[in-house]
Design a protein that fits this description.
This protein is an all-alpha fold and 186 residues long. The chain has one domain. The protein contains six helices and no strands.
Length: 186
């Protein structure tokens, strides 16, 4: 899982950085980043399948669900900047809180649809939401160290490091839950 999510986040963040640095118009940047988010989901799911070994769910549905969930999460995550929302507006703040919950639920809910027949599988959703909420903090870590004048190599390296830390956080926090949900079903 660690390697899959790290590589996946590097792809998605790389496309996002390229779109921003390259001044891509939103009509090109948004679909490209959402598609890259789907690739992140594929790589995450592949890592999870390898990690789960003989306890893994069916490959095709797991890959598809995780890819779609990740693409949805990226689309939601980009909404505030894409829509130019004024974060000081109380209605916007309420919307963003709701959107953040949907973003955190996107991947585990899609995955749960694949494993819903397993005993105790409903715990997969809140357990993963909590892990992703903790891990998402790492995506903001590079911000204090970069600005529009930062070399693209520095930006890329810092976001790859953030991706590694994000992946490690999710892996560590979800490992006991995965062991419980997947090994128990076998």
């Amino acid at each position: 899982m660690l390697v899959g999510e790290t590589l996946g986040f590097a792809v998605a963040a790389g496309i996002a950085v390229a779109a921003t640095a390259g001044g891509w118009p939103p009509s090109v940047a948004v679909p490209a980043i959402v598609a890259a988010g789907g690739i992140e989901g594929l790589l995450l799911a592949s890592g999870q399948l390898i990690g789960l070994g003989r306890f893994a769910p069916r490959r095709g549905p797991w890959l598809a669900a995780t890819s779609v969930g990740a693409a949805v999460a990226w689309a939601i995550g980009m909404a505030p900047s894409t829509l130019g929302l004024a974060v000081l507006d109380p209605v916007v703040i309420a919307f963003l809180v709701g959107a953040a919950l949907v973003l955190l639920a996107a991947i585990p809910t899609a995955q749960w649809l694949v494993i819903r027949h397993r005993p105790g599988s409903l715990r997969w959703i809140p357990g993963n939401m909590g892990a992703w909420a903790a891990a998402a903090i790492w995506t903001a870590a590079p911000s204090p160290f970069i600005d529009e004048n930062s070399p693209i190599v520095l930006v890329a390296l810092l976001y790859v490091a953030a991706g590694v830390l994000m992946a490690a956080t999710v892996a560590v926090l979800t490992a006991p839950l995965a062991r419980s949900v997947f090994a128990r079903a076998a």
